[in-house]
Specification:
The complex is a heterodimer.
Chain A lengths: L8 E4 L5 E6 L11 E6 L6 E4 L13 E6 L2 E6 L8 E8 L5 E3 L3 E5 L1
Chain B lengths: L2 E4 L3 E3 L5 E8 L6 E8 L5 E8 L5 E3 L7 E6 L4 E6 L8 E9 L7 E2 L3 E5 L2
Parallel strand pairs in B: 2-11
Antiparallel strand pairs in B: 1-3, 3-8, 4-5, 4-9, 5-6, 7-8, 9-10, 9-11
The chains are: A mainly beta, B mainly beta.
Chain lengths: ~110, ~120
């Protein structure tokens, strides 16, 4: 099972919107609605930001949104803030009770 | 409150095995799946496998088949992950995480356990 493909880095200025892509295959992202996104700050455990493609857990800012089209899922952060600077990972069910993470994207706020 | 508390850091020699524990509290242990995820220094997250804390069934990533074993003890609400035939590339931070209701998401994470493999 290969890792899902994400851009290594994405940057934006405060207030701007950025989008992180997560490309898989018809065996994972394309076949299931179980795509979630995690934010990881340095030295911390990952934090769930989006699940089932586009739902937000309680307490997560509505500046974070998710979507999916075909084999590619996307995370959009609108109104970028300094605190959004972190690594972001997508995660998908891949069938047969297995899962796979994305390669990770470092978000930099300029 | 929901907590996953992992065992402390380990230093192992190549070829040895390591067992990391993850003690759950604040929720009905047997109603969830517990996953293990690792992160090598400066690298991304890697899914290792999962165990149904109720029934005990497991599923492992192909990369770890034959080397990883996940078990649970319902009397202490603890999940164990054993990785054998350790090599230097297994040096990483190992996390346990909870999946509710076959939802495909990981909502609570342990603090991580650093495993260092060095001769």
């Amino acid at each position: 099972q290969s890792a899902l493909t994400q851009p290594a880095s994405v940057s934006g200025s405060p207030g701007q919107s950025i989008t992180i892509s997560c490309t898989g295959t018809s065996s994972d992202v394309g076949s299931y609605n179980f795509v979630s996104w995690y934010q990881q700050r340095p030295g911390k455990a990952p934090k769930l930001m989006i699940y089932e493609g586009g739902k937000r857990p309680s307490g997560v800012s509505n500046r974070f949104s998710g979507s999916k089209s075909g084999n590619t899922a996307s995370l959009t952060i609108s109104g970028l803030q300094d605190e959004d600077e972190a690594d972001y990972y997508c995660y998908s069910y891949a069938g047969s009770s297995t899962y796979v993470f994305g390669t990770g994207t470092k978000v930099t706020v300029l | 409150q929901v907590q996953l508390v992992q065992s402390g850091a380990e230093v192992k020699k190549p070829g040895a095995s390591v067992e990391v524990s993850c003690r759950a509290s604040g929720f009905t242990f047997t109603g969830y799946y517990i996953h293990w995820v690792r992160q090598a220094p400066g690298q991304g997250l890697e899914w290792m496998g999962t165990i149904n804390a109720g029934g005990g069934s497991t599923s492992y990533a192909q990369n770890f088949q034959g080397r990883v074993t996940m078990t649970r003890d319902t009397s202490t609400s603890t999940v164990y992950m054993e990785l054998s035939s350790l090599r230097s590339e297994d040096t990483a931070l190992y996390y346990c995480a909870r999946e509710p209701d076959s939802s495909g998401l990981l909502d609570y994470w342990g603090q991580g356990t650093l495993v260092t493999v060095s001769s």
